[in-house]
């Protein structure tokens, strides 16, 4: 019974209560008795029940007395109670049947589209009274029977429809049924809210859906026909035909409204089975007739079509299921064949920078298990093979700068692929880094070549380049540096090349030099770059020293040649073998004065001249008084100064006069006499090589359009084999104390450790600089045992103990 009703404005329910008595007046000869329910009402409903109390319900003038007992309390509100009838009530025995006939007629009229003449207020009253007077079961049973009868007639109408009209008729009848069901539910709302919950029966709307399912959708003639028609339309759409998507959406929505199990069993499962068969056959057809790129386009198109189909007329939950079918049949089952497809597979795409095809492959393969792993593995194999050919090709090893540039180009190429096609996926970035680290270290000269590349760029390659571009080049160099396992070898070569740039003042930018050292420091720590920074400090200190020298000794020097000395701290600069060289008297005098000055101002120091690392500017006069300023090395200056006292000198005479080492002397003479445009000397007999029987003359006919002429020393850009061995030996010697220090640190912390764990720990600690050889580690352990830093365990020879 509705609550909180405004007594001044009776509602439909109030009206129904007031009219109960009038509709229950019995015929004179037929008297029945009913007992009223006990009800509790609120005070604002009292007016309605006051009217209800005064109604006469019988010819024998038997009155119904409704007694209200008012229980008063000072703390509580007033409450009214209805007591049970004390007298029997006379009721028409045919009341229920008559009322149901009225409601049944209304249901027929609703289904026959004649509902406009019905009084829904009266129908609601009748349904309300039947439930109130315990005829709810009759009302519910009658409803089921009547609706079933109508639905059977509708089923016959749908079955009779032919061809394309079948779905249209089904959809039209479904729409009409829903409208009718809504009207019926409104009429029977009181039954829906009271009788049905108390008896645990199916609500009216759900009942209507279940009856439609059982009497329409699941009939033998309609169920199969409906499924086949829907699947046929899907297949026709896949073939390119245009179908009525609105009709499809409404019919499939009907199945969804009937319950998820109806949608799944009657449509979704057959749809997925049919789709799997369709795409299995289509993938086989495509793989035989298309290249990899075209196949991927077709697969992508089909996948998008299915996603679009779901959005138009399928249940959203079907998207995952149908896309899984397409992915399995068109991608997963064929992905190995696609990746390895000759002339169009993954390798071909990588080689030809097919970013669109690669991106499509990535987006499709990521949808299936192990798809991206397959791409990664094939890509890794390709990069490693390409890189191996690059670093082991003898022709490409002839030019170190070109060698490193090719590495950078290869890295840029693959970085671009990962950025544009693979969405910067970390998996592929890690695979690329791993591949580069693998093949760069296949060539033991990679550290030397990278240092030579840096040397070339910082000498001339970055001239006129913006700061941003300089930083870009240096960042790329650092990227290659990170791949090196023998970073200490790079350090050796870089230190040598940096020393030459600083001493000859050939660096294109001091800012670029310091920027690179800062990057190395960030990467490897202060210890790695401390000596490199010391080299810059020495250059600055040397400039200050020379200013002091000329300030103190300027008058004594007179017209002597100008001298610029770089004082190099032993240990900070690359170790150089001290080579003897007889300087010209004019130069030697100035050098002795500087030595006297320096040692006088710095106690306890010793100076050793490194003539092989110096340079000189000398003025020369040729035929017809033509003058040039020649920029030469110290060795070349010593040779040229000899020709002030004679026109022709043999190789042996030059060697004895200068005492320049044989190899350096031959390079020196070769650059002075055999380089076209720089040949200030003449050699007899003519030829490119220098022999001990050759004779050299001052070339009066030398001419150049430049006043300043730089004569470089003919040197191999790469080290000779003996030089390589020497550098390698120095590196190995430098590694020994580092390995020993790591062993002592580990053993001091662990106290007792077995051999294998020591090797593993040492390798882990030193891998940022180099990968120590286990054999070398073992030798260093033996050395530490001999010097009593460690001892072997008496029982287990593989166990070592630290000695404090």
From TrEMBL:
Cullin family profile domain ranges (all copies): 445-673
Protein known as: Cullin family profile domain-containing protein
Keywords: Isopeptide bond, Ubl conjugation, Ubl conjugation pathway
Gene Ontology molecular functions: ubiquitin protein ligase binding
Pfam families: Cullin (PF00888), Cullin_AB (PF26557), Cullin_Nedd8 (PF10557)
Domain of life from the UniProt record: Eukaryota
Gene3D superfamilies recorded: Cullin Repeats, Cullin, Chain C, Domain 2, Winged helix-like DNA-binding domain superfamily/Winged helix DNA-binding domain
SMART domains: CULLIN, Cullin_Nedd8
Family the UniProt entry places it in: Belongs to the cullin family.
Stored PROSITE patterns: CULLIN_2
InterPro entries in alphabetical order: Cullin (IPR045093), Cullin-like_AB (IPR059120), Cullin_homology (IPR016158), Cullin_homology_sf (IPR036317), Cullin_N (IPR001373), Cullin_neddylation_domain (IPR019559), Cullin_repeat-like_dom_sf (IPR016159), WH-like_DNA-bd_sf (IPR036388)
Database matches in SUPFAM superfamilies: Cullin homology domain, Cullin repeat-like, Winged helix' DNA-binding domain
Source organism (scientific name): Tagetes erecta (African marigold)
Gene Ontology process terms (BP): ubiquitin-dependent protein catabolic process
């Amino acid at each position: 019974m509705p609550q909180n009703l405004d007594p001044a404005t009776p509602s439909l329910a109030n009206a129904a209560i007031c009219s109960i008595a009038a509709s229950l007046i019995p015929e004179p000869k037929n008297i029945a008795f009913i007992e009223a329910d006990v009800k509790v009402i609120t005070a604002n409903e009292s007016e309605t029940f006051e009217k209800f109390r005064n109604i006469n319900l019988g010819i024998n003038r038997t009155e119904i007395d409704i007694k209200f007992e008012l229980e008063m309390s000072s703390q509580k509100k007033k409450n009214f109670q209805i007591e049970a009838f004390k007298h029997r009530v006379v009721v028409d025995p045919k009341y229920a049947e008559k009322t149901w006939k009225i409601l049944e007629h209304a249901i027929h009229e609703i289904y026959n589209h004649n509902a406009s003449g019905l009084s829904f207020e009266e129908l609601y009253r009748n349904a309300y009274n039947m439930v109130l007077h315990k005829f709810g079961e009759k009302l519910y049973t009658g409803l089921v029977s009547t609706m079933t009868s109508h639905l059977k007639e509708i089923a016959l109408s749908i079955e009779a429809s032919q061809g394309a009209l079948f779905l249209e008729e089904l959809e039209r009848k479904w729409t009409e049924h829903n409208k009718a069901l809504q009207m019926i539910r409104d009429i029977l709302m009181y039954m829906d809210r009271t009788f049905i919950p108390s008896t645990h029966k199916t609500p009216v709307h759900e009942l209507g859906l279940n009856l439609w399912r059982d009497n329409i959708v699941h009939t033998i003639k309609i169920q199969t026909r409906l499924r086949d028609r829907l699947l046929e339309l899907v297949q026709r759409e896949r073939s390119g035909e245009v179908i009525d998507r609105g009709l499809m959406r409404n019919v499939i929505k009907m199945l969804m409204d009937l319950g998820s199990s109806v949608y799944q069993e009657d449509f979704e499962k057959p749809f997925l089975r049919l789709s799997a068969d369709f795409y299995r056959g289509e993938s086989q057809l495509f793989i035989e007739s298309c290249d990899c790129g075209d196949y991927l386009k077709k697969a992508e198109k089909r996948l998008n079509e299915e996603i679009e189909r779901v959005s138009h007329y399928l249940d959203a939950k079907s998207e995952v299921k149908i896309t899984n079918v397409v992915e399995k049949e068109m991608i997963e089952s064929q992905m190995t064949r696609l990746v390895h497809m000759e002339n169009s597979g993954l390798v071909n795409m990588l080689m030809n920078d097919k970013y669109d095809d690669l991106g499509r492959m990535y987006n499709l393969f990521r949808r299936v298990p192990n798809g991206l792993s397959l791409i990664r593995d094939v890509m890794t194999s390709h990069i490693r093979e390409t890189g191996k050919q690059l670093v082991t090709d003898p022709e490409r090893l002839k030019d170190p700068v070109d060698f490193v540039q090719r590495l950078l180009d290869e890295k840029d190429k693959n970085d671009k692929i990962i950025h544009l096609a693979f969405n910067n996926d970390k998996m592929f970035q890690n695979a690329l880094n791993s591949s580069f680290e693998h093949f760069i270290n296949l060539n033991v000269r990679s550290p030397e070549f990278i240092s030579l590349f840096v040397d070339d760029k910082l000498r001339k390659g970055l001239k006129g380049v913006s700061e941003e571009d300089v930083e870009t080049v240096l960042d790329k160099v650092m990227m290659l540096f990170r791949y090196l396992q023998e970073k200490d070898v790079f350090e050796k070569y870089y230190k040598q090349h940096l020393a030459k740039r600083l001493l000859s003042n050939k660096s294109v930018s001091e800012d670029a030099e310091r920027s690179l050292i800062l990057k190395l420091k960030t990467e490897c720590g202060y210890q790695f770059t401390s000596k490199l920074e010391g080299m810059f400090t020495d250059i600055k200190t040397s400039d200050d020293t020379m200013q002091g020298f000329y300030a103190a000794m300027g008058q004594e020097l007179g017209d002597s040649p100008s001298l610029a000395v770089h004082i190099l701290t032993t240990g900070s600069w690359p170790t150089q073998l001290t080579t003897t060289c007889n300087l010209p008297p004019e130069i030697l005098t100035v050098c002795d004065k500087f030595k006297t000055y320096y040692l006088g101002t710095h106690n306890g120091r010793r100076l050793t001249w490194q003539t092989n690392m110096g340079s000189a500017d000398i003025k020369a006069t040729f035929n017809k008084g033509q003058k040039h300023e020649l920029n030469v090395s110290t060795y070349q200056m010593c040779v040229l100064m000899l020709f002030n006292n004679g026109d022709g000198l043999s190789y042996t005479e030059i060697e004895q006069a200068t005492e320049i080492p044989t190899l350096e002397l031959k390079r020196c003479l070769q650059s002075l006499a055999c380089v076209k445009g720089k040949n200030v000397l003449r050699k007899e007999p003519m030829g490119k090589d220098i022999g001990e029987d050759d004779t050299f003359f001052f070339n009066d006919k030398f001419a150049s359009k430049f006043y300043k002429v730089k004569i470089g020393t003919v040197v191999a850009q790469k080290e000779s084999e003996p030089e390589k061995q020497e550098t390698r030996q120095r590196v190995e010697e430098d590694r020994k104390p580092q390995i020993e220090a790591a062993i002592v640190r580990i053993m001091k912390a662990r106290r007792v450790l077995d051999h294998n764990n020591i090797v593993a720990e040492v390798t882990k600690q030193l891998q940022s600089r180099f990968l120590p050889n286990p054999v070398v580690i073992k030798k260093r352990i033996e050395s530490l045992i001999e010097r009593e830093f460690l001892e072997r365990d008496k029982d287990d020879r593989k166990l070592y103990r630290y000695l404090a």
